[in-house]
Specification:
This protein is of the alpha+beta class. Strand 2 and strand 3 form a beta hairpin. Helix 1 packs across helix 11. The longest helix is centred in the C-terminal third of the chain and has 44 residues.
């Protein structure tokens, strides 16, 4: 016995061009929809990971001091301002603070870097507090410094790859003619740490002749009121406070605005595709009006005709949804690259995260909206009177 699915499939194949064009509309709509939902999830997850990978939620520095390593490198170290180490103890004494780590940022011009020279970024870090602040850092080779005064260096993955260094090699600090032994190479993190060279804080202070620092990284207690802590830190003289939670909120608000606009376009595309579904199924019903009348004279009930036509809608929407989601998965990497080009800031990691749950939710949305759209043509088919259809054919 022929099933309803077989009959519905044959009916759709009668007008191949019309069916294919309708399928293309559904495919494109589902592709855009699942990609946008995947971007929404992937971007937020990647941004959270980047913020967490900083190891601290708040940074304190002297006013005017660039807190991004990229900014420091572009400026070639110019304009750096320093703060006294006593500030670390003042901040550490606050009840909301869990951990504190002092950092000294320095940039040196390396004439042997690239074709016309380049800037090498060095971070002086405290061996007792920095690794504990960033426990997620993993080593590709080697490990941390032997002690707080060691003339040693730990290189980020990209820094080591660029300079072709291995554990045990010696590197020369540009402008200072001081050699440091490479004792560790970090695994790739997708953050600015990849291009940074870490040395003990005391060692970098000795090399530069400074007894100060540029930055203080702060990690608050889990139950701490960050707003209250930030307000108290603003009271420190000549200091500026950078809260990564605020940075994250600002970026997410900007992205949310753009996402609403693009999602609106995706919804419009989905509605247009559904109009195409209604048109295709309705035209198919009108063209088969005589056949439906014959089926009714043979005993078919309105509910049978309704289900038959509704099955056509289900086949169209399910097929288009599956193909669209499949294309979104295949071209997820391309979508990721296009998003990175379009955004002013893109965190490391996967930006378009499409998983099984998201795919199933998108497919369900396409099918449900499609079935709702197909109710009118199916209802129209069920109401056809056998006598009227035969007379119209005559």
């Amino acid at each position: 016995m022929i099933s309803k699915f077989q009959i519905a499939s044959k009916n759709l194949l009668r007008k191949k061009a019309r069916t294919v064009l309708t399928l293309v509309g559904i495919i494109l709509s589902s592709w855009v929809l699942v990609s946008l939902l995947g971007f929404n999830r992937g971007y937020e997850k990647a941004l959270n990971r980047d913020i967490d990978n900083m190891g601290y939620q708040i940074m304190v520095m002297a006013k005017g001091c660039p807190y991004e390593a990229a900014t420091m490198m572009l400026q070639g170290g110019a304009g750096l301002r320093y703060i006294e180490e006593d500030v670390v103890k003042t901040i550490e004494a606050r009840p909301e603070v869990d951990k504190v780590t002092p950092i000294l940022m320095q940039a040196f011009f390396d004439p042997n870097k690239g074709d016309g020279g380049g800037i090498a970024g060095y971070f002086g870090v405290d061996l007792a507090t920095f690794p504990a602040m960033k426990p997620f850092l993993r080593f590709h080779k080697g490990g941390w410094f032997a002690d707080a005064n060691a003339e040693e260096a730990v290189m980020g993955y990209e820094a080591a790859e660029l300079e072709q260094r291995e554990v045990g090699d010696l590197i020369l600090v540009p402008e200072k003619n001081v050699q440091l032994k490479v004792v560790g190479i970090l695994q790739r993190t997708g953050t600015q740490d990849d291009g940074t060279i870490f040395v003990p804080l005391r060692t970098l202070q000795k090399i530069t002749g400074l007894d100060k620092i540029t930055t203080i990284g702060i990690k608050a207690r889990k139950d701490a009121d960050l707003t209250k802590l930030e307000a108290s830190l603003y009271q420190l003289p000549d200091m500026q406070v950078v809260s990564f939670s605020q940075v994250k909120q600002t970026i997410m608000k900007l992205i949310a605005t753009a996402r609403v606009m693009v999602l609106s376009i995706a919804v419009i595309a989905l509605l247009i595709a559904m109009v195409g579904v209604v048109n295709t199924v309705l035209m198919s019903v009108l063209e088969r009006k005589h056949e439906i009348g014959i089926l009714k004279t043979m005993g078919a009930m309105p509910g049978d005709i309704f289900r038959l036509v509704w099955t056509e809608t289900l086949i169209l929407c399910a097929s288009g949804g599956v193909l669209g989601i499949g294309l979104a998965l295949v071209f997820a990497r391309l979508s990721d690259l296009l998003v990175r080009r379009a955004l002013p800031y893109a965190p490391g990691g996967e930006l378009v995260a499409i998983d099984l749950r998201l795919s199933a939710m998108t497919l369900l949305t396409i099918v449900v909206v499609g079935l709702v759209s197909g109710m009118y043509p199916a209802w129209k088919a069920g109401r056809i009177r056998p006598l009227d259809s035969i007379r119209s054919e005559a």
